[in-house]
Sequence to fold (388 residues):
Amino acid sequence: MIYDFLTPLDKDNLLQNQELHPGQIGNYVFIYDGTEPEIGWYDIAIIGVEEDRGSVGNTGSAKGPDQIRREFYKLFLPPVEKEFHVIDLGNIKPGETVRDTYFALASVVLEMLVHKVVPIIIGGSNDLAFGQYIGYKGLQTLINVVNIDERLDMFEKVNNQTDSTSFVMDILTHTPNYLFNYSHLGYQTYLNDSKAIEMLESLNFDCHRLGLVRANLEDVEPVLRDADMLTIDVSAIRQADAPAHAQASPNGFTGEELCQITRYAGLSDKLTSIGFYEMNPGYDNNRQTAQLVAQMMWYFVEGFYSRVGDYPLTLEEHLKFNVHIEDSDHDLIFWKSRKTDRWWMELPFGDKEKFGRHQLVPCSYRDYELACEQELPDRWMKAYTKLV
Fold:
């Protein structure tokens, strides 16, 4: 049972006996109290992980979950029409080893996915993203992962132990492999080995530099719309906005930009889990980072309850556009949602049983324009390469 892994919360102690306004979120989140809930009734589950033994240079992030949820509870309900069904399952107990904690997190994540509940994971060190990923193993389907971090975290493991600097390699090389695409957002070139960047690109995975993402934030919306899981390291945010990390950098995303990104993630019909990692209260300034992560969670929840269900595609709710490419055996097929004006590209080949859910690639109107100019969009080419 997954509840053997979880420690219930003491809400009064968590809020330090502070009373909440009737409209604040803390009054509407069901707090797991040790009695097994009807988990399928909820839409979202908050899961804390008090684990940082895999942290390299940022020990103390295990104390982050309660600091973050304390700030989240103080926020007011998002202005959405749907009912608010959110449960806080408390914190996962650290295992005897870090691997045990990964297993516990993976078990809880899988249970949520099976019941179509979206887990919001608050850590804890960033290597917990590996446990988040392993949770998808039981679904037996290929998934897409998006990681937001200033570093690629692809160093070799020390003593064969996964940590916060090497977990991405574990995701890429895990056997059996159920990774279809990996996208990295916001890396800073001077903090990374160019060989690691070249390796990801040679595998037709996506690497997006911080400056290019910030120059046109809307371009990451299709990337997030195609993701099954999203992980965020707070070190990707500039130190002025998020000081709660021992290696916080003067450069990075602004708080506003990460809130916009998490809202994009919430709006995605495909995304089924999100993790916030490496928030270290020992380096925080007047709870600034805890408040920011809580606000990022708020924007994700607001986006989630604003989903309109335009994926998977239906002929009645989408417009179809055929673009003929000269010297090609087939046309490029684009779909545009009548509800949201969002775009998808349809890929022509591939094993439908294995790759069926990846044959529609989220894209932008600019990709359609490129096709009309007889230029194959980069998104289309990378996805096509994986299918053939």
Remarks:
- The longest strand covers residues 179-187.
- The chain has a mean pLDDT of 94.
